[in-house]
Amino acid sequence: MAILTLAKGDPAALKLLKEAVAARYGLRPLLVESLRLTLSAKRPGFLGLPAQTHVHLALVGSTHWRWQERTRLLGIPIASRLESFDGGACYTGKIGAITSSTEAQDLSSYQRLLWAVLALLITPLTEEGVIVKAGGERTFAATLENAPHDVATITLNADYTLNKVQVQRHRPGDAAPVNYVVTPGRELQTLSGLILPVTVEMGWEDKPRTVYTITHAEVNETIPLTEFTVHGG
Question: Is pTM, for the whole model, over 0.85?
Answer without folding.
Answer: yes
